[in-house]
Amino acid sequence: TEKSHKQRKTEDENREFKVEWTELFAFIQNSNGLPTCLICQEKLAHNKKSNLERHFTTKHASFGSKYPAGDARKKAVEELQKSQQKSSSVFNYWVQSSNNVNIASFIVSQEIAKRGKPYTDGEYIKSCFINASEELFRDFKNKAEILNKIKELPLSAKTVKDRTVKMSSNITNQQIEDLKLVSALSIAVDESCDINDTAQVSLFVRFISSTGPKEELLGLLPLKGQTRGEDIANAVIECMEKHHIPLDKIVSISTDGAKSMTGVRKGFVSILTEKMNHEILVYHCIIHQEALCAQTFPEEICNVMELVIKIVNTIVAKALYHRQFKEFLVEMESEYADLLLHNKVRWLSRGNVLKRFTSLLLEIKAFLLEKGVDYPELTDDQWIQKFYFMVDVTSHLNNLNRKLQEKGNTIFSMLEEVISFENKLSLFAQDFERETLIHFPSLLKHRQENNSVIDIYYFKTAILNMREAFLRRFQEFRNSMATLAFVKKPLSADVTELNFSLFNIDIGAFEMQLLELKNKELWSSKFERLNADLEKLEKNKCDFSSQHKWSALKDLEKEDMIIFNTWNSIPDSYDQLKKLAFAVLSLFGSTYSCEQSFSSMNLIKSTLRNRLIDENLESCLKLKTTTYKPDLSKLSKEMQGHCSH
To answer: Which InterPro entries does the record cross-reference, listed alphabetically (predicted)?
Structure first.
Protein backbone atom coordinates (compact mmCIF):
# COMPACT_ATOMS: atom_id res chain seq x y z
CA THR A 1 0.00 0.00 0.00
CA GLU A 2 2.87 2.35 0.77
CA LYS A 3 4.23 1.69 -2.72
CA SER A 4 0.87 2.42 -4.37
CA HIS A 5 0.50 5.60 -2.22
CA LYS A 6 3.93 6.87 -3.43
CA GLN A 7 3.04 6.02 -7.02
CA ARG A 8 -0.27 7.90 -6.74
CA LYS A 9 1.51 10.89 -5.19
CA THR A 10 4.04 10.98 -8.07
CA GLU A 11 1.22 10.76 -10.63
CA ASP A 12 -0.58 13.68 -8.91
CA GLU A 13 2.58 15.82 -9.08
CA ASN A 14 3.23 14.99 -12.72
CA ARG A 15 -0.30 15.65 -14.00
CA GLU A 16 -0.64 18.40 -16.60
CA PHE A 17 -3.26 21.14 -16.66
CA LYS A 18 -6.03 20.40 -19.22
CA VAL A 19 -7.23 23.33 -21.39
CA GLU A 20 -10.92 22.29 -21.07
CA TRP A 21 -10.81 22.85 -17.29
CA THR A 22 -10.78 26.62 -17.94
CA GLU A 23 -14.31 26.56 -19.42
CA LEU A 24 -15.65 23.84 -17.09
CA PHE A 25 -14.34 25.15 -13.72
CA ALA A 26 -13.08 28.74 -14.46
CA PHE A 27 -9.42 27.81 -13.76
CA ILE A 28 -6.25 28.86 -15.62
CA GLN A 29 -2.64 27.72 -15.31
CA ASN A 30 -0.33 30.24 -13.56
CA SER A 31 3.37 30.89 -14.36
CA ASN A 32 4.38 28.04 -12.02
CA GLY A 33 2.15 25.56 -13.89
CA LEU A 34 -0.43 25.34 -11.08
CA PRO A 35 -4.23 25.86 -11.38
CA THR A 36 -5.54 29.29 -10.29
CA CYS A 37 -9.20 30.16 -9.89
CA LEU A 38 -10.32 33.09 -12.11
CA ILE A 39 -13.18 33.92 -9.71
CA CYS A 40 -11.40 34.07 -6.32
CA GLN A 41 -7.68 33.86 -7.38
CA GLU A 42 -7.06 30.85 -5.08
CA LYS A 43 -4.21 28.57 -6.17
CA LEU A 44 -4.43 24.78 -5.84
CA ALA A 45 -1.45 22.53 -5.15
CA HIS A 46 -2.01 19.93 -7.91
CA ASN A 47 -3.37 19.67 -11.46
CA LYS A 48 -6.09 17.22 -10.38
CA LYS A 49 -9.52 17.41 -12.01
CA SER A 50 -11.42 16.27 -8.88
CA ASN A 51 -9.79 19.05 -6.78
CA LEU A 52 -10.76 21.76 -9.32
CA GLU A 53 -14.31 20.38 -9.58
CA ARG A 54 -14.75 20.25 -5.78
CA HIS A 55 -13.49 23.87 -5.45
CA PHE A 56 -15.87 25.09 -8.20
CA THR A 57 -19.02 23.27 -6.93
CA THR A 58 -18.53 24.11 -3.23
CA LYS A 59 -17.23 27.71 -3.45
CA HIS A 60 -18.77 29.01 -6.69
CA ALA A 61 -22.13 27.17 -6.95
CA SER A 62 -23.96 30.44 -7.66
CA PHE A 63 -21.63 31.16 -10.63
CA GLY A 64 -22.29 27.61 -11.90
CA SER A 65 -26.08 28.01 -11.75
CA LYS A 66 -25.99 31.58 -13.20
CA TYR A 67 -23.78 30.48 -16.14
CA PRO A 68 -24.64 26.84 -16.98
CA ALA A 69 -22.08 24.74 -18.91
CA GLY A 70 -22.03 25.67 -22.60
CA ASP A 71 -21.94 29.06 -24.39
CA ALA A 72 -23.08 31.09 -21.34
CA ARG A 73 -20.25 29.81 -19.16
CA LYS A 74 -17.74 30.05 -22.01
CA LYS A 75 -18.51 33.81 -22.45
CA ALA A 76 -18.46 34.45 -18.68
CA VAL A 77 -15.08 32.72 -18.31
CA GLU A 78 -13.64 34.66 -21.30
CA GLU A 79 -14.67 37.94 -19.59
CA LEU A 80 -12.98 36.79 -16.39
CA GLN A 81 -9.81 35.98 -18.37
CA LYS A 82 -9.76 39.44 -20.01
CA SER A 83 -10.17 41.07 -16.60
CA GLN A 84 -7.36 38.89 -15.20
CA GLN A 85 -4.97 39.79 -18.06
CA LYS A 86 -5.73 43.49 -17.65
CA SER A 87 -4.99 43.52 -13.91
CA SER A 88 -1.88 41.37 -14.50
CA SER A 89 -0.51 43.78 -17.12
CA VAL A 90 -1.21 46.75 -14.78
CA PHE A 91 0.71 44.96 -12.02
CA ASN A 92 3.61 44.11 -14.39
CA TYR A 93 3.68 47.72 -15.60
CA TRP A 94 3.81 48.91 -11.99
CA VAL A 95 6.66 46.52 -11.18
CA GLN A 96 8.62 47.55 -14.32
CA SER A 97 7.91 51.24 -13.72
CA SER A 98 9.08 50.95 -10.12
CA ASN A 99 12.20 49.12 -11.35
CA ASN A 100 12.96 51.92 -13.87
CA VAL A 101 12.64 54.57 -11.14
CA ASN A 102 15.04 52.60 -8.94
CA ILE A 103 17.62 52.20 -11.70
CA ALA A 104 17.39 55.95 -12.48
CA SER A 105 17.96 56.67 -8.78
CA PHE A 106 21.05 54.41 -8.79
CA ILE A 107 22.40 56.17 -11.91
CA VAL A 108 22.11 59.63 -10.32
CA SER A 109 23.67 58.34 -7.06
CA GLN A 110 26.55 56.83 -9.06
CA GLU A 111 27.22 60.15 -10.83
CA ILE A 112 27.19 61.99 -7.48
CA ALA A 113 29.75 59.51 -6.04
CA LYS A 114 31.96 59.53 -9.16
CA ARG A 115 32.24 63.31 -8.97
CA GLY A 116 32.96 63.28 -5.22
CA LYS A 117 29.83 65.34 -4.46
CA PRO A 118 27.84 65.25 -1.19
CA TYR A 119 24.78 62.98 -0.82
CA THR A 120 22.55 66.04 -0.39
CA ASP A 121 23.13 66.93 -4.05
CA GLY A 122 20.49 64.30 -4.91
CA GLU A 123 17.63 66.62 -3.90
CA TYR A 124 19.30 69.53 -5.69
CA ILE A 125 19.65 67.50 -8.93
CA LYS A 126 16.02 66.39 -8.66
CA SER A 127 14.87 69.98 -8.19
CA CYS A 128 16.89 71.05 -11.27
CA PHE A 129 15.46 68.12 -13.22
CA ILE A 130 11.86 69.05 -12.35
CA ASN A 131 12.28 72.78 -13.06
CA ALA A 132 14.10 72.19 -16.36
CA SER A 133 11.49 69.62 -17.43
CA GLU A 134 8.70 72.16 -16.96
CA GLU A 135 10.14 74.01 -19.97
CA LEU A 136 11.74 71.10 -21.81
CA PHE A 137 8.50 69.12 -22.09
CA ARG A 138 6.12 72.09 -22.26
CA ASP A 139 4.65 70.96 -25.62
CA PHE A 140 4.49 67.27 -24.80
CA LYS A 141 1.00 65.81 -24.35
CA ASN A 142 2.22 63.52 -21.55
CA LYS A 143 4.11 66.30 -19.73
CA ALA A 144 2.25 65.66 -16.45
CA GLU A 145 3.15 61.96 -16.64
CA ILE A 146 6.84 62.78 -17.24
CA LEU A 147 6.95 65.22 -14.32
CA ASN A 148 5.25 62.71 -12.01
CA LYS A 149 7.89 60.17 -12.97
CA ILE A 150 10.69 62.59 -12.07
CA LYS A 151 8.97 63.46 -8.78
CA GLU A 152 8.88 59.74 -7.93
CA LEU A 153 12.70 59.57 -8.11
CA PRO A 154 14.01 58.68 -4.61
CA LEU A 155 17.02 60.97 -4.14
CA SER A 156 17.09 62.00 -0.49
CA ALA A 157 20.55 62.14 1.12
CA LYS A 158 19.85 58.85 2.95
CA THR A 159 18.76 57.14 -0.29
CA VAL A 160 21.84 58.35 -2.21
CA LYS A 161 24.05 57.14 0.65
CA ASP A 162 22.36 53.70 0.75
CA ARG A 163 22.55 53.36 -3.05
CA THR A 164 26.28 54.28 -2.97
CA VAL A 165 27.03 51.64 -0.31
CA LYS A 166 25.06 48.99 -2.29
CA MET A 167 26.89 49.82 -5.55
CA SER A 168 30.27 49.78 -3.80
CA SER A 169 29.46 46.37 -2.29
CA ASN A 170 28.40 45.07 -5.72
CA ILE A 171 31.72 46.26 -7.22
CA THR A 172 33.68 44.62 -4.37
CA ASN A 173 31.91 41.33 -5.17
CA GLN A 174 32.91 41.67 -8.85
CA GLN A 175 36.52 42.41 -7.83
CA ILE A 176 36.60 39.35 -5.55
CA GLU A 177 35.14 37.07 -8.25
CA ASP A 178 37.89 38.14 -10.66
CA LEU A 179 40.62 37.87 -8.00
CA LYS A 180 39.59 34.27 -7.28
CA LEU A 181 40.55 33.34 -10.86
CA VAL A 182 44.01 34.96 -11.04
CA SER A 183 47.29 33.24 -10.16
CA ALA A 184 49.21 36.49 -9.52
CA LEU A 185 48.42 39.94 -8.15
CA SER A 186 50.32 42.97 -6.88
CA ILE A 187 49.41 45.33 -4.08
CA ALA A 188 50.20 49.02 -3.63
CA VAL A 189 49.88 50.40 -0.12
CA ASP A 190 49.94 54.06 0.80
CA GLU A 191 49.06 55.96 3.95
CA SER A 192 47.73 59.49 4.35
CA CYS A 193 45.46 61.46 6.66
CA ASP A 194 41.97 62.72 5.90
CA ILE A 195 40.53 66.09 6.96
CA ASN A 196 39.93 64.78 10.53
CA ASP A 197 43.54 63.54 10.78
CA THR A 198 42.37 59.90 10.67
CA ALA A 199 45.15 57.82 9.14
CA GLN A 200 43.75 56.06 6.05
CA VAL A 201 45.61 53.26 4.27
CA SER A 202 44.64 52.75 0.65
CA LEU A 203 45.05 49.19 -0.59
CA PHE A 204 45.15 48.92 -4.38
CA VAL A 205 45.40 45.62 -6.23
CA ARG A 206 46.60 45.10 -9.78
CA PHE A 207 45.78 41.88 -11.61
CA ILE A 208 44.92 40.56 -15.06
CA SER A 209 41.21 39.76 -15.51
CA SER A 210 39.62 38.06 -18.52
CA THR A 211 39.09 41.52 -20.07
CA GLY A 212 42.54 42.96 -19.37
CA PRO A 213 44.68 44.63 -16.68
CA LYS A 214 42.79 45.98 -13.67
CA GLU A 215 44.03 48.46 -11.07
CA GLU A 216 41.45 48.63 -8.31
CA LEU A 217 40.94 50.06 -4.84
CA LEU A 218 40.23 46.96 -2.74
CA GLY A 219 39.84 48.87 0.51
CA LEU A 220 40.37 52.15 2.34
CA LEU A 221 41.50 51.05 5.76
CA PRO A 222 41.27 53.50 8.69
CA LEU A 223 43.93 53.21 11.41
CA LYS A 224 42.40 54.35 14.68
CA GLY A 225 45.51 54.17 16.86
CA GLN A 226 49.12 54.33 15.77
CA THR A 227 50.45 54.08 12.24
CA ARG A 228 53.34 51.71 12.82
CA GLY A 229 54.35 49.12 10.23
CA GLU A 230 52.57 46.37 12.16
CA ASP A 231 49.32 48.40 12.32
CA ILE A 232 49.38 48.84 8.53
CA ALA A 233 50.27 45.15 8.02
CA ASN A 234 47.44 43.99 10.31
CA ALA A 235 44.90 46.18 8.48
CA VAL A 236 46.03 44.88 5.05
CA ILE A 237 46.09 41.21 6.14
CA GLU A 238 42.64 41.55 7.75
CA CYS A 239 41.24 43.03 4.51
CA MET A 240 42.78 40.25 2.37
CA GLU A 241 41.48 37.54 4.70
CA LYS A 242 38.00 39.08 4.85
CA HIS A 243 37.77 38.73 1.08
CA HIS A 244 39.39 35.24 1.09
CA ILE A 245 42.36 36.34 -1.05
CA PRO A 246 45.41 34.15 -0.32
CA LEU A 247 48.57 36.14 0.49
CA ASP A 248 50.52 33.62 -1.61
CA LYS A 249 49.03 35.13 -4.79
CA ILE A 250 50.97 38.37 -4.15
CA VAL A 251 54.02 38.69 -6.42
CA SER A 252 54.96 42.30 -5.62
CA ILE A 253 54.40 45.07 -3.09
CA SER A 254 54.75 48.76 -3.83
CA THR A 255 54.80 51.43 -1.11
CA ASP A 256 55.59 55.14 -0.71
CA GLY A 257 58.99 54.41 0.87
CA ALA A 258 58.11 55.89 4.29
CA LYS A 259 59.86 54.44 7.36
CA SER A 260 56.73 52.63 8.62
CA MET A 261 56.70 50.80 5.26
CA THR A 262 60.41 50.01 4.82
CA GLY A 263 61.71 49.33 8.36
CA VAL A 264 63.99 46.26 8.36
CA ARG A 265 62.30 44.49 11.29
CA LYS A 266 59.07 46.31 12.02
CA GLY A 267 58.24 47.81 8.64
CA PHE A 268 55.02 46.88 6.86
CA VAL A 269 56.86 45.08 4.03
CA SER A 270 59.05 42.90 6.27
CA ILE A 271 56.04 41.88 8.43
CA LEU A 272 53.96 40.97 5.38
CA THR A 273 56.74 39.05 3.59
CA GLU A 274 57.25 36.93 6.73
CA LYS A 275 53.67 35.66 6.28
CA MET A 276 54.37 34.45 2.73
CA ASN A 277 55.96 31.26 1.52
CA HIS A 278 57.71 32.70 -1.52
CA GLU A 279 60.01 35.45 -2.75
CA ILE A 280 58.35 38.72 -3.86
CA LEU A 281 59.40 41.94 -5.59
CA VAL A 282 59.32 45.02 -3.39
CA TYR A 283 59.69 48.58 -4.62
CA HIS A 284 59.03 52.05 -3.31
CA CYS A 285 57.49 54.36 -5.82
CA ILE A 286 59.45 57.45 -6.76
CA ILE A 287 56.33 59.50 -7.30
CA HIS A 288 56.58 59.95 -3.53
CA GLN A 289 59.37 62.47 -3.83
CA GLU A 290 58.65 63.83 -0.38
CA ALA A 291 60.12 60.64 1.10
CA LEU A 292 62.81 60.45 -1.60
CA CYS A 293 64.06 64.02 -1.08
CA ALA A 294 63.85 63.79 2.72
CA GLN A 295 66.08 60.71 2.54
CA THR A 296 68.61 62.12 0.07
CA PHE A 297 68.87 65.89 0.42
CA PRO A 298 70.45 67.69 3.37
CA GLU A 299 67.85 68.76 5.93
CA GLU A 300 68.37 72.47 5.24
CA ILE A 301 67.31 72.03 1.59
CA CYS A 302 64.07 70.33 2.69
CA ASN A 303 63.54 73.18 5.17
CA VAL A 304 63.61 75.61 2.22
CA MET A 305 60.49 73.94 0.84
CA GLU A 306 58.77 74.03 4.23
CA LEU A 307 59.42 77.76 4.62
CA VAL A 308 58.05 78.46 1.12
CA ILE A 309 54.85 76.59 2.00
CA LYS A 310 54.65 78.43 5.34
CA ILE A 311 54.86 81.82 3.57
CA VAL A 312 52.33 80.78 0.91
CA ASN A 313 49.90 79.54 3.54
CA THR A 314 50.39 82.69 5.63
CA ILE A 315 49.25 84.77 2.66
CA VAL A 316 46.56 82.41 1.36
CA ALA A 317 45.09 81.14 4.62
CA LYS A 318 44.48 84.62 6.03
CA ALA A 319 41.60 85.76 3.88
CA LEU A 320 42.29 89.50 4.24
CA TYR A 321 45.97 89.10 3.33
CA HIS A 322 44.93 86.92 0.42
CA ARG A 323 42.57 89.54 -0.98
CA GLN A 324 45.05 92.35 -0.40
CA PHE A 325 47.80 90.32 -2.08
CA LYS A 326 45.61 89.80 -5.15
CA GLU A 327 44.99 93.55 -5.33
CA PHE A 328 48.70 94.19 -4.73
CA LEU A 329 49.61 91.91 -7.66
CA VAL A 330 47.11 93.64 -9.94
CA GLU A 331 48.63 97.03 -9.01
CA MET A 332 52.10 95.68 -9.81
CA GLU A 333 50.77 94.13 -13.04
CA SER A 334 52.26 90.76 -12.18
CA GLU A 335 51.73 87.90 -14.63
CA TYR A 336 50.16 85.78 -11.88
CA ALA A 337 46.87 86.74 -10.29
CA ASP A 338 47.39 84.63 -7.19
CA LEU A 339 49.55 82.08 -5.40
CA LEU A 340 48.86 78.35 -5.47
CA LEU A 341 47.82 76.78 -2.18
CA HIS A 342 49.93 73.67 -1.70
CA ASN A 343 48.19 70.33 -1.15
CA LYS A 344 50.40 68.13 1.03
CA VAL A 345 49.28 64.91 -0.65
CA ARG A 346 50.41 65.92 -4.10
CA TRP A 347 54.15 66.58 -4.14
CA LEU A 348 53.78 67.40 -7.81
CA SER A 349 51.97 70.59 -6.85
CA ARG A 350 55.11 71.63 -4.93
CA GLY A 351 56.85 72.13 -8.25
CA ASN A 352 54.06 74.50 -9.27
CA VAL A 353 54.20 76.32 -5.93
CA LEU A 354 57.96 76.81 -6.27
CA LYS A 355 57.70 78.04 -9.86
CA ARG A 356 55.04 80.57 -8.98
CA PHE A 357 56.89 81.62 -5.83
CA THR A 358 60.01 82.23 -7.98
CA SER A 359 58.07 84.43 -10.40
CA LEU A 360 56.59 86.42 -7.53
CA LEU A 361 59.61 86.56 -5.22
CA LEU A 362 60.10 90.35 -5.56
CA GLU A 363 56.38 91.01 -5.07
CA ILE A 364 56.20 88.66 -2.05
CA LYS A 365 59.19 90.39 -0.42
CA ALA A 366 57.62 93.82 -1.00
CA PHE A 367 54.22 92.71 0.29
CA LEU A 368 55.61 91.10 3.48
CA LEU A 369 57.76 94.17 4.10
CA GLU A 370 54.68 96.38 3.78
CA LYS A 371 52.83 94.15 6.28
CA GLY A 372 55.75 94.14 8.71
CA VAL A 373 56.19 90.36 8.44
CA ASP A 374 59.87 89.47 8.55
CA TYR A 375 61.42 86.38 6.94
CA PRO A 376 65.19 87.06 7.00
CA GLU A 377 65.82 83.96 4.83
CA LEU A 378 64.35 85.80 1.82
CA THR A 379 67.40 88.08 1.76
CA ASP A 380 70.01 85.41 2.70
CA ASP A 381 72.03 84.43 -0.41
CA GLN A 382 72.75 80.89 0.86
CA TRP A 383 69.00 80.28 1.42
CA ILE A 384 68.15 81.78 -1.98
CA GLN A 385 70.68 79.47 -3.68
CA LYS A 386 69.12 76.41 -2.05
CA PHE A 387 65.68 77.72 -3.02
CA TYR A 388 66.59 78.05 -6.73
CA PHE A 389 68.29 74.64 -6.61
CA MET A 390 64.99 73.15 -5.33
CA VAL A 391 63.06 74.95 -8.08
CA ASP A 392 65.25 73.36 -10.77
CA VAL A 393 65.40 69.87 -9.20
CA THR A 394 61.62 69.66 -8.69
CA SER A 395 61.16 70.76 -12.30
CA HIS A 396 63.28 67.78 -13.47
CA LEU A 397 61.51 65.43 -11.08
CA ASN A 398 58.12 66.64 -12.28
CA ASN A 399 59.04 65.83 -15.88
CA LEU A 400 59.89 62.30 -14.76
CA ASN A 401 56.68 62.09 -12.76
CA ARG A 402 54.49 63.05 -15.68
CA LYS A 403 55.86 60.10 -17.59
CA LEU A 404 55.42 57.77 -14.63
CA GLN A 405 51.86 58.90 -14.00
CA GLU A 406 50.51 57.68 -17.31
CA LYS A 407 47.97 54.96 -16.72
CA GLY A 408 48.66 51.66 -18.43
CA ASN A 409 52.45 51.85 -18.18
CA THR A 410 54.27 48.56 -17.69
CA ILE A 411 56.90 48.07 -15.00
CA PHE A 412 59.56 47.70 -17.74
CA SER A 413 58.69 51.14 -19.16
CA MET A 414 58.84 52.64 -15.68
CA LEU A 415 62.28 51.12 -15.13
CA GLU A 416 63.53 52.49 -18.48
CA GLU A 417 62.44 55.99 -17.39
CA VAL A 418 64.11 55.58 -13.99
CA ILE A 419 67.44 54.40 -15.50
CA SER A 420 67.29 57.29 -17.96
CA PHE A 421 66.78 59.70 -15.05
CA GLU A 422 69.68 58.15 -13.11
CA ASN A 423 71.91 58.91 -16.08
CA LYS A 424 70.54 62.46 -16.16
CA LEU A 425 71.52 62.84 -12.48
CA SER A 426 75.11 61.91 -13.45
CA LEU A 427 74.91 64.58 -16.14
CA PHE A 428 73.59 67.13 -13.57
CA ALA A 429 76.53 66.33 -11.26
CA GLN A 430 78.94 66.98 -14.18
CA ASP A 431 77.05 70.24 -14.85
CA PHE A 432 77.99 71.41 -11.33
CA GLU A 433 81.56 70.13 -11.70
CA ARG A 434 81.95 72.19 -14.90
CA GLU A 435 80.17 75.09 -13.12
CA THR A 436 78.10 75.63 -16.29
CA LEU A 437 74.65 75.18 -14.62
CA ILE A 438 73.03 74.56 -18.04
CA HIS A 439 70.44 72.26 -16.42
CA PHE A 440 69.77 74.60 -13.47
CA PRO A 441 68.43 77.75 -15.18
CA SER A 442 67.00 79.37 -12.02
CA LEU A 443 70.28 79.00 -10.13
CA LEU A 444 72.22 80.19 -13.20
CA LYS A 445 70.02 83.29 -13.52
CA HIS A 446 70.51 84.06 -9.81
CA ARG A 447 74.32 83.79 -10.23
CA GLN A 448 74.33 86.05 -13.28
CA GLU A 449 72.06 88.72 -11.74
CA ASN A 450 73.67 88.80 -8.28
CA ASN A 451 77.28 87.69 -8.93
CA SER A 452 76.72 84.95 -6.34
CA VAL A 453 79.39 82.38 -5.58
CA ILE A 454 77.59 79.05 -5.92
CA ASP A 455 78.51 76.31 -3.45
CA ILE A 456 79.30 73.81 -6.23
CA TYR A 457 80.48 70.91 -4.01
CA TYR A 458 77.41 71.14 -1.76
CA PHE A 459 74.90 70.87 -4.62
CA LYS A 460 76.88 68.25 -6.54
CA THR A 461 76.90 66.04 -3.41
CA ALA A 462 73.11 66.46 -3.03
CA ILE A 463 72.61 65.32 -6.66
CA LEU A 464 74.92 62.28 -6.28
CA ASN A 465 73.11 61.27 -3.07
CA MET A 466 69.82 61.35 -4.94
CA ARG A 467 71.31 59.12 -7.65
CA GLU A 468 72.43 56.63 -4.99
CA ALA A 469 68.87 56.56 -3.59
CA PHE A 470 67.49 55.78 -7.07
CA LEU A 471 70.00 52.96 -7.49
CA ARG A 472 69.05 51.45 -4.11
CA ARG A 473 65.31 51.74 -4.64
CA PHE A 474 65.28 49.80 -7.88
CA GLN A 475 68.13 47.35 -7.35
CA GLU A 476 65.82 44.30 -7.32
CA PHE A 477 64.37 45.30 -10.65
CA ARG A 478 67.74 45.65 -12.33
CA ASN A 479 68.34 42.00 -11.49
CA SER A 480 65.05 41.12 -13.22
CA MET A 481 65.30 43.31 -16.33
CA ALA A 482 65.19 40.34 -18.73
CA THR A 483 62.10 38.94 -16.97
CA LEU A 484 60.29 42.29 -17.10
CA ALA A 485 61.15 42.69 -20.81
CA PHE A 486 59.72 39.23 -21.59
CA VAL A 487 56.14 40.53 -22.03
CA LYS A 488 57.25 42.75 -24.92
CA LYS A 489 59.97 40.61 -26.49
CA PRO A 490 59.49 36.91 -25.79
CA LEU A 491 61.13 35.97 -29.13
CA SER A 492 64.53 37.30 -27.99
CA ALA A 493 64.21 35.89 -24.43
CA ASP A 494 66.99 33.68 -23.04
CA VAL A 495 65.60 31.25 -20.45
CA THR A 496 68.85 31.31 -18.43
CA GLU A 497 68.40 35.07 -17.82
CA LEU A 498 64.78 34.83 -16.59
CA ASN A 499 63.88 34.89 -12.90
CA PHE A 500 61.17 32.27 -12.27
CA SER A 501 61.38 32.21 -8.45
CA LEU A 502 58.57 34.76 -8.07
CA PHE A 503 56.01 33.18 -10.32
CA ASN A 504 55.75 29.41 -9.70
CA ILE A 505 56.53 28.45 -13.32
CA ASP A 506 57.15 24.90 -14.61
CA ILE A 507 60.56 25.63 -16.20
CA GLY A 508 60.68 22.48 -18.34
CA ALA A 509 57.28 23.17 -19.89
CA PHE A 510 58.21 26.86 -20.25
CA GLU A 511 61.35 26.04 -22.27
CA MET A 512 59.44 23.74 -24.63
CA GLN A 513 56.60 26.24 -25.15
CA LEU A 514 59.04 29.11 -25.81
CA LEU A 515 60.85 27.05 -28.43
CA GLU A 516 57.55 26.21 -30.15
CA LEU A 517 56.42 29.85 -30.04
CA LYS A 518 59.64 31.08 -31.67
CA ASN A 519 59.28 28.53 -34.49
CA LYS A 520 55.55 28.97 -35.12
CA GLU A 521 55.19 31.79 -37.66
CA LEU A 522 51.47 32.28 -36.88
CA TRP A 523 52.20 33.19 -33.24
CA SER A 524 55.69 34.71 -33.52
CA SER A 525 54.42 37.23 -36.11
CA LYS A 526 52.00 38.56 -33.48
CA PHE A 527 54.93 39.75 -31.34
CA GLU A 528 56.57 41.43 -34.33
CA ARG A 529 53.29 43.35 -34.84
CA LEU A 530 53.19 44.09 -31.10
CA ASN A 531 56.55 45.88 -31.25
CA ALA A 532 55.42 47.90 -34.27
CA ASP A 533 52.25 48.92 -32.34
CA LEU A 534 54.28 49.90 -29.27
CA GLU A 535 56.64 51.99 -31.41
CA LYS A 536 53.67 53.80 -32.93
CA LEU A 537 52.18 54.39 -29.43
CA GLU A 538 55.48 55.81 -28.12
CA LYS A 539 55.81 58.16 -31.10
CA ASN A 540 52.25 59.45 -30.56
CA LYS A 541 52.97 59.97 -26.85
CA CYS A 542 56.08 62.03 -27.63
CA ASP A 543 54.29 64.07 -30.32
CA PHE A 544 51.22 64.84 -28.18
CA SER A 545 53.39 65.72 -25.14
CA SER A 546 55.52 68.17 -27.13
CA GLN A 547 52.33 69.73 -28.57
CA HIS A 548 50.67 69.82 -25.09
CA LYS A 549 47.72 67.81 -26.42
CA TRP A 550 46.90 66.26 -23.03
CA SER A 551 43.37 65.07 -23.94
CA ALA A 552 44.65 63.28 -27.06
CA LEU A 553 47.42 61.75 -24.93
CA LYS A 554 44.84 60.49 -22.43
CA ASP A 555 42.75 58.90 -25.20
CA LEU A 556 45.61 56.81 -26.61
CA GLU A 557 45.31 53.05 -26.17
CA LYS A 558 47.20 51.94 -23.06
CA GLU A 559 50.51 50.09 -23.40
CA ASP A 560 49.54 47.27 -21.01
CA MET A 561 46.24 46.71 -22.89
CA ILE A 562 48.04 46.38 -26.26
CA ILE A 563 50.41 43.80 -24.71
CA PHE A 564 47.52 41.96 -22.98
CA ASN A 565 45.54 41.66 -26.22
CA THR A 566 48.52 40.07 -27.97
CA TRP A 567 49.11 37.51 -25.21
CA ASN A 568 45.40 36.85 -24.83
CA SER A 569 45.19 35.85 -28.51
CA ILE A 570 47.81 33.11 -27.97
CA PRO A 571 46.25 29.65 -27.30
CA ASP A 572 46.24 28.22 -23.76
CA SER A 573 48.60 25.43 -24.85
CA TYR A 574 51.29 28.08 -24.10
CA ASP A 575 49.99 28.33 -20.53
CA GLN A 576 53.41 28.72 -18.80
CA LEU A 577 54.44 31.55 -21.12
CA LYS A 578 51.08 33.28 -20.54
CA LYS A 579 51.37 32.73 -16.79
CA LEU A 580 54.71 34.56 -16.69
CA ALA A 581 53.50 37.31 -19.06
CA PHE A 582 50.32 37.99 -17.05
CA ALA A 583 52.24 37.88 -13.75
CA VAL A 584 54.72 40.51 -15.05
CA LEU A 585 51.82 42.58 -16.42
CA SER A 586 50.22 42.48 -12.97
CA LEU A 587 53.15 44.48 -11.49
CA PHE A 588 52.35 48.14 -10.90
CA GLY A 589 53.92 50.33 -13.60
CA SER A 590 53.07 53.31 -11.39
CA THR A 591 51.38 53.84 -8.03
CA TYR A 592 49.79 57.05 -9.22
CA SER A 593 46.39 55.43 -8.56
CA CYS A 594 47.22 55.52 -4.84
CA GLU A 595 48.30 59.15 -4.96
CA GLN A 596 45.25 60.11 -6.98
CA SER A 597 42.94 58.31 -4.56
CA PHE A 598 44.17 60.52 -1.72
CA SER A 599 43.50 63.66 -3.75
CA SER A 600 40.01 62.22 -4.36
CA MET A 601 39.66 61.41 -0.66
CA ASN A 602 40.40 65.03 0.29
CA LEU A 603 37.89 66.19 -2.31
CA ILE A 604 35.18 63.82 -0.98
CA LYS A 605 35.86 64.27 2.76
CA SER A 606 36.25 68.04 2.69
CA THR A 607 35.82 70.49 5.55
CA LEU A 608 32.10 70.58 4.65
CA ARG A 609 31.77 66.78 4.88
CA ASN A 610 34.09 66.04 7.80
CA ARG A 611 31.46 63.83 9.51
CA LEU A 612 31.54 61.28 6.68
CA ILE A 613 32.10 57.87 8.31
CA ASP A 614 34.88 55.56 7.10
CA GLU A 615 32.56 53.00 5.45
CA ASN A 616 30.83 55.70 3.41
CA LEU A 617 34.16 57.35 2.50
CA GLU A 618 35.40 53.99 1.17
CA SER A 619 32.17 53.49 -0.85
CA CYS A 620 32.45 56.95 -2.44
CA LEU A 621 36.14 56.45 -3.21
CA LYS A 622 35.59 53.00 -4.70
CA LEU A 623 32.90 54.30 -7.08
CA LYS A 624 35.13 57.23 -8.03
CA THR A 625 38.19 55.12 -8.84
CA THR A 626 36.82 51.79 -10.18
CA THR A 627 36.71 50.59 -13.79
CA TYR A 628 33.91 48.13 -12.93
CA LYS A 629 30.26 48.97 -13.59
CA PRO A 630 27.79 48.15 -10.81
CA ASP A 631 25.01 45.71 -11.85
CA LEU A 632 22.16 48.21 -11.51
CA SER A 633 19.35 45.94 -12.75
CA LYS A 634 20.35 43.28 -10.21
CA LEU A 635 20.57 45.84 -7.40
CA SER A 636 17.21 47.33 -8.40
CA LYS A 637 15.46 43.94 -8.47
CA GLU A 638 16.81 43.19 -5.00
CA MET A 639 14.96 46.26 -3.74
CA GLN A 640 11.29 47.04 -3.43
CA GLY A 641 10.15 50.15 -5.26
CA HIS A 642 10.02 53.02 -2.80
CA CYS A 643 8.15 56.19 -3.48
CA SER A 644 10.09 59.44 -3.39
CA HIS A 645 11.35 60.62 -0.02
So the answer is: HATC_C_dom (IPR008906), RNaseH-like_sf (IPR012337)
